[in-house]
Amino acid sequence: MTTATPATPEPANGARTGVGVDVGGTGIKAGLVDLERGELVGDRLVSDTPQPATPDAIAETIREMVDELGTDGPVGVALPSVIHEGVARIAHNIDTSWIGCDVVDLFDRHLPGRRVVMLNDADAAGLTEVQFGAAAGLDGLVILLTFGTGIGSALLFDGRLIPNTEFGHLMVEDIAGRGFDETEHLASASVRARDELSFAEWAPHVSNVLRNIEDLLWPRAFVLGGGVSEAADEWFPLLENRTPVRAAVRLNDAGIIGAATYAAADAGVLDLGEVLSRHRG
Question: What domains can be seen in the chain, in order of their start residue?
Fold first, then answer.
Protein backbone atom coordinates (compact mmCIF):
# COMPACT_ATOMS: atom_id res chain seq x y z
CA MET A 1 0.00 0.00 0.00
CA THR A 2 1.28 3.47 -0.90
CA THR A 3 0.32 6.58 1.04
CA ALA A 4 1.25 10.21 0.68
CA THR A 5 2.40 12.28 3.64
CA PRO A 6 2.81 16.07 3.80
CA ALA A 7 6.18 17.52 2.85
CA THR A 8 7.42 21.03 2.06
CA PRO A 9 5.81 23.40 -0.47
CA GLU A 10 6.53 23.35 -4.17
CA PRO A 11 9.97 24.63 -5.22
CA ALA A 12 10.45 28.14 -6.50
CA ASN A 13 10.07 28.68 -10.23
CA GLY A 14 13.04 27.29 -12.11
CA ALA A 15 14.40 25.24 -9.23
CA ARG A 16 15.97 21.94 -10.22
CA THR A 17 14.34 18.84 -8.80
CA GLY A 18 15.28 15.16 -8.58
CA VAL A 19 13.73 11.88 -7.48
CA GLY A 20 14.97 9.99 -4.44
CA VAL A 21 13.94 6.63 -2.98
CA ASP A 22 14.93 5.29 0.44
CA VAL A 23 14.49 1.53 0.98
CA GLY A 24 14.08 0.27 4.52
CA GLY A 25 13.28 -3.06 6.08
CA THR A 26 9.63 -2.18 6.70
CA GLY A 27 8.95 0.79 4.44
CA ILE A 28 10.03 2.43 1.19
CA LYS A 29 9.90 6.23 0.94
CA ALA A 30 10.08 8.25 -2.26
CA GLY A 31 9.84 11.92 -3.06
CA LEU A 32 10.67 14.84 -5.28
CA VAL A 33 13.64 16.86 -3.99
CA ASP A 34 14.52 20.50 -4.49
CA LEU A 35 18.20 20.12 -5.42
CA GLU A 36 19.03 23.72 -4.55
CA ARG A 37 17.71 23.64 -0.97
CA GLY A 38 18.01 19.92 -0.26
CA GLU A 39 14.37 19.65 0.80
CA LEU A 40 11.41 17.49 -0.16
CA VAL A 41 8.68 19.13 -2.22
CA GLY A 42 5.12 18.05 -2.87
CA ASP A 43 4.01 14.81 -1.23
CA ARG A 44 6.27 12.10 0.13
CA LEU A 45 5.16 8.62 -0.85
CA VAL A 46 5.44 5.74 1.62
CA SER A 47 4.90 2.08 0.73
CA ASP A 48 5.28 -1.12 2.71
CA THR A 49 8.45 -3.01 1.87
CA PRO A 50 7.31 -6.18 0.09
CA GLN A 51 7.84 -9.45 1.91
CA PRO A 52 9.99 -11.20 0.96
CA ALA A 53 12.04 -8.13 0.07
CA THR A 54 13.56 -9.59 -3.10
CA PRO A 55 15.23 -7.43 -5.78
CA ASP A 56 12.38 -7.81 -8.26
CA ALA A 57 9.70 -7.13 -5.65
CA ILE A 58 11.41 -3.99 -4.38
CA ALA A 59 12.27 -2.75 -7.88
CA GLU A 60 8.64 -3.15 -8.95
CA THR A 61 7.44 -1.23 -5.90
CA ILE A 62 9.92 1.53 -6.72
CA ARG A 63 8.67 1.62 -10.32
CA GLU A 64 5.09 2.13 -9.10
CA MET A 65 6.14 4.92 -6.75
CA VAL A 66 8.27 6.69 -9.36
CA ASP A 67 5.37 6.48 -11.82
CA GLU A 68 3.08 7.99 -9.20
CA LEU A 69 5.45 10.92 -8.70
CA GLY A 70 4.94 11.61 -12.39
CA THR A 71 8.28 13.20 -13.24
CA ASP A 72 11.06 12.41 -15.66
CA GLY A 73 14.77 12.43 -14.99
CA PRO A 74 17.26 10.30 -13.06
CA VAL A 75 16.25 8.31 -9.98
CA GLY A 76 18.47 7.73 -6.97
CA VAL A 77 17.85 4.75 -4.69
CA ALA A 78 19.31 4.40 -1.18
CA LEU A 79 19.52 0.75 -0.16
CA PRO A 80 20.67 -1.02 3.04
CA SER A 81 23.49 -2.74 1.18
CA VAL A 82 27.00 -2.11 -0.08
CA ILE A 83 26.82 -1.33 -3.81
CA HIS A 84 30.20 -2.10 -5.35
CA GLU A 85 30.85 -2.00 -9.10
CA GLY A 86 27.12 -2.16 -9.79
CA VAL A 87 26.53 -5.22 -7.62
CA ALA A 88 24.85 -5.49 -4.20
CA ARG A 89 27.31 -7.18 -1.87
CA ILE A 90 25.40 -7.47 1.43
CA ALA A 91 21.75 -7.44 2.51
CA HIS A 92 20.66 -5.80 5.77
CA ASN A 93 16.92 -5.99 6.56
CA ILE A 94 16.18 -7.08 2.99
CA ASP A 95 16.17 -10.50 1.36
CA THR A 96 19.50 -12.27 1.04
CA SER A 97 18.79 -12.76 -2.69
CA TRP A 98 20.10 -9.19 -3.10
CA ILE A 99 23.65 -10.44 -2.52
CA GLY A 100 25.30 -10.65 -5.94
CA CYS A 101 22.41 -8.86 -7.66
CA ASP A 102 23.39 -6.76 -10.70
CA VAL A 103 21.43 -3.60 -9.81
CA VAL A 104 22.03 -2.02 -13.21
CA ASP A 105 20.34 -4.92 -14.98
CA LEU A 106 17.60 -4.99 -12.33
CA PHE A 107 16.47 -1.43 -12.96
CA ASP A 108 17.03 -1.65 -16.70
CA ARG A 109 14.28 -4.28 -16.59
CA HIS A 110 11.91 -2.53 -14.20
CA LEU A 111 12.41 1.11 -15.23
CA PRO A 112 13.50 0.87 -18.88
CA GLY A 113 14.59 4.18 -20.32
CA ARG A 114 15.15 5.74 -16.86
CA ARG A 115 18.57 6.49 -15.45
CA VAL A 116 18.67 4.77 -12.03
CA VAL A 117 21.64 4.77 -9.65
CA MET A 118 21.95 3.18 -6.24
CA LEU A 119 24.05 3.81 -3.15
CA ASN A 120 24.24 2.69 0.45
CA ASP A 121 21.53 4.26 2.63
CA ALA A 122 23.94 5.65 5.24
CA ASP A 123 26.10 7.08 2.44
CA ALA A 124 22.98 8.83 1.13
CA ALA A 125 22.40 10.33 4.58
CA GLY A 126 26.05 11.40 4.74
CA LEU A 127 25.83 13.07 1.35
CA THR A 128 22.75 14.96 2.55
CA GLU A 129 24.39 16.15 5.75
CA VAL A 130 27.60 17.27 4.03
CA GLN A 131 25.71 19.18 1.34
CA PHE A 132 22.80 20.60 3.32
CA GLY A 133 23.07 19.64 6.99
CA ALA A 134 25.24 19.27 10.07
CA ALA A 135 28.46 18.39 8.20
CA ALA A 136 28.28 21.27 5.72
CA GLY A 137 31.45 23.34 5.70
CA LEU A 138 33.42 21.04 8.00
CA ASP A 139 37.01 20.33 6.97
CA GLY A 140 38.95 17.19 7.76
CA LEU A 141 37.44 13.85 8.69
CA VAL A 142 33.79 13.74 9.74
CA ILE A 143 31.96 10.50 10.56
CA LEU A 144 28.20 10.16 10.35
CA LEU A 145 26.56 7.36 12.32
CA THR A 146 22.86 6.52 12.09
CA PHE A 147 21.34 4.79 15.10
CA GLY A 148 18.33 2.65 14.21
CA THR A 149 17.79 -1.08 13.80
CA GLY A 150 21.56 -1.22 13.33
CA ILE A 151 24.28 1.41 13.05
CA GLY A 152 24.97 2.82 9.61
CA SER A 153 28.02 4.91 8.80
CA ALA A 154 29.33 7.42 6.29
CA LEU A 155 32.92 8.65 6.08
CA LEU A 156 33.38 12.25 4.94
CA PHE A 157 36.75 13.89 4.26
CA ASP A 158 36.89 17.59 3.31
CA GLY A 159 33.27 17.29 2.18
CA ARG A 160 33.92 14.19 0.05
CA LEU A 161 32.10 10.96 0.71
CA ILE A 162 34.23 7.81 0.88
CA PRO A 163 31.72 5.02 0.19
CA ASN A 164 30.65 1.77 1.76
CA THR A 165 31.97 1.94 5.32
CA GLU A 166 30.39 -0.48 7.79
CA PHE A 167 31.25 0.73 11.28
CA GLY A 168 28.12 -0.97 12.58
CA HIS A 169 30.03 -4.25 12.21
CA LEU A 170 33.20 -3.07 13.93
CA MET A 171 34.04 -5.47 16.76
CA VAL A 172 34.48 -3.77 20.14
CA GLU A 173 34.59 -4.92 23.74
CA ASP A 174 31.30 -4.53 25.55
CA ILE A 175 31.51 -2.34 28.66
CA ALA A 176 29.09 -4.73 30.36
CA GLY A 177 31.79 -7.39 30.33
CA ARG A 178 30.13 -9.74 27.84
CA GLY A 179 33.13 -9.93 25.52
CA PHE A 180 33.49 -8.56 22.01
CA ASP A 181 30.57 -7.94 19.67
CA GLU A 182 29.55 -5.77 16.72
CA THR A 183 28.86 -2.15 17.62
CA GLU A 184 25.26 -2.35 16.39
CA HIS A 185 24.62 -5.28 18.72
CA LEU A 186 25.80 -3.13 21.65
CA ALA A 187 24.62 0.41 21.04
CA SER A 188 21.96 0.66 18.30
CA ALA A 189 18.62 2.33 18.99
CA SER A 190 16.95 -1.07 18.68
CA VAL A 191 19.15 -2.41 21.49
CA ARG A 192 18.11 0.53 23.66
CA ALA A 193 14.45 -0.22 22.96
CA ARG A 194 14.87 -3.97 23.44
CA ASP A 195 16.61 -3.62 26.79
CA GLU A 196 14.39 -0.70 27.86
CA LEU A 197 17.43 1.47 28.60
CA SER A 198 17.14 5.08 29.68
CA PHE A 199 19.35 7.59 27.89
CA ALA A 200 21.62 7.60 30.95
CA GLU A 201 21.97 3.82 30.73
CA TRP A 202 22.42 3.77 26.95
CA ALA A 203 24.84 6.70 26.52
CA PRO A 204 27.89 4.85 27.97
CA HIS A 205 27.48 2.15 25.30
CA VAL A 206 27.38 4.82 22.57
CA SER A 207 30.42 6.54 24.12
CA ASN A 208 32.27 3.23 24.03
CA VAL A 209 31.57 2.87 20.30
CA LEU A 210 32.63 6.45 19.59
CA ARG A 211 35.86 6.08 21.56
CA ASN A 212 36.79 2.92 19.66
CA ILE A 213 36.27 4.69 16.34
CA GLU A 214 38.20 7.73 17.59
CA ASP A 215 41.18 5.56 18.46
CA LEU A 216 41.27 4.30 14.87
CA LEU A 217 40.57 7.44 12.86
CA TRP A 218 40.70 10.60 15.06
CA PRO A 219 37.85 12.47 13.33
CA ARG A 220 37.17 16.20 13.64
CA ALA A 221 33.49 15.60 14.43
CA PHE A 222 30.76 12.99 14.64
CA VAL A 223 27.32 13.61 13.15
CA LEU A 224 24.77 11.33 14.78
CA GLY A 225 21.46 10.57 13.07
CA GLY A 226 18.45 8.31 13.34
CA GLY A 227 15.26 8.92 15.25
CA VAL A 228 17.11 9.26 18.57
CA SER A 229 18.89 12.38 17.29
CA GLU A 230 15.60 14.24 17.71
CA ALA A 231 16.23 13.90 21.47
CA ALA A 232 19.88 15.00 21.19
CA ASP A 233 19.52 17.51 24.03
CA GLU A 234 18.65 14.66 26.37
CA TRP A 235 21.60 12.34 25.70
CA PHE A 236 24.39 14.18 23.87
CA PRO A 237 25.49 15.84 27.17
CA LEU A 238 25.85 12.32 28.63
CA LEU A 239 28.44 11.21 26.05
CA GLU A 240 32.02 10.87 27.26
CA ASN A 241 34.04 10.70 24.05
CA ARG A 242 36.58 13.40 23.13
CA THR A 243 35.34 14.38 19.65
CA PRO A 244 32.65 17.06 19.17
CA VAL A 245 29.23 15.61 18.34
CA ARG A 246 26.57 17.19 16.13
CA ALA A 247 22.99 16.07 15.57
CA ALA A 248 21.95 15.24 12.01
CA VAL A 249 19.36 17.75 10.86
CA ARG A 250 17.60 15.99 7.97
CA LEU A 251 16.48 12.92 9.95
CA ASN A 252 13.98 10.71 8.10
CA ASP A 253 14.31 12.61 4.80
CA ALA A 254 18.09 12.23 4.54
CA GLY A 255 18.04 9.04 2.48
CA ILE A 256 15.63 10.45 -0.09
CA ILE A 257 17.50 13.73 -0.39
CA GLY A 258 20.91 12.10 -0.64
CA ALA A 259 19.74 9.58 -3.23
CA ALA A 260 18.20 12.30 -5.40
CA THR A 261 21.34 14.44 -5.07
CA TYR A 262 23.56 11.52 -6.03
CA ALA A 263 21.44 10.70 -9.10
CA ALA A 264 21.39 14.33 -10.26
CA ALA A 265 25.16 14.61 -9.89
CA ASP A 266 25.71 11.30 -11.68
CA ALA A 267 23.58 12.56 -14.58
CA GLY A 268 25.43 15.88 -14.73
CA VAL A 269 22.38 17.86 -13.63
CA LEU A 270 24.06 18.94 -10.39
CA ASP A 271 27.73 19.84 -9.92
CA LEU A 272 29.19 18.44 -6.70
CA GLY A 273 32.79 19.02 -7.71
CA GLU A 274 34.97 16.11 -6.60
CA VAL A 275 32.31 14.65 -4.31
CA LEU A 276 30.77 12.40 -6.97
CA SER A 277 34.03 10.79 -8.06
CA ARG A 278 34.87 9.98 -4.45
CA HIS A 279 31.60 8.27 -3.56
CA ARG A 280 30.91 6.11 -6.58
CA GLY A 281 30.28 2.52 -5.49
Answer: 2-121+252-278 (3.30.420.40), 134-249 (3.30.420.40)
